[in-house]
Design goal:
Elements (H helix, E strand, L loop, with lengths): L7 H13 L8 H5 L3 H10 L13 H18 L9 H5 L4 H14 L15
């Protein structure tokens, strides 16, 4: 268990950074996460193989597919539907607040993920 201080956005960014090993500046989560690659890395660390295909292409369609893969994997591990974001919320920068809610929900869920021993976000 690790205590992450700061705003919800800062907590989400720090947790993603810890799990993925990729620098994620809290001030610009949209740019850092838009490709979906880092989110897929996080998901595959939490539950290996949960996002089977991760594209490194910088074109919109593969990036949206990456984001959808992350969303589907979150649902599969048990993140509540009400905590989920729609891929357009992230890709089109429509609702970053909901993206942060999803990341925090996944970070809390990790405490109960049997095969995962990495950092998680403590319930507050």
């Amino acid at each position: 268990e690790k205590h992450y201080p700061g705003s919800e956005e800062e907590v989400a960014a720090a947790w993603i950074e810890d799990v993925s090993g990729t620098a994620v500046p809290a001030g610009d989560l949209h740019t850092a996460l838009k490709s979906g690659v880092t989110l897929c890395q996080v998901m595959n660390t939490v539950r290996p193989g949960s996002v089977r295909k991760v594209s490194q292409q910088e074109a919109p369609f593969p990036q949206r597919e990456n984001i959808q893969g992350f969303v589907d994997a979150c649902k599969a591990v048990g993140v509540r539907e009400g905590d989920m974001f729609d891929p357009g919320d992230l890709f089109d920068n429509r609702n970053m607040r909901q993206v942060i809610i999803t990341i925090l929900a996944l970070g809390r869920h990790c405490a109960h993920e049997a095969a995962y021993s990495g950092p998680y976000i403590a319930m507050s």
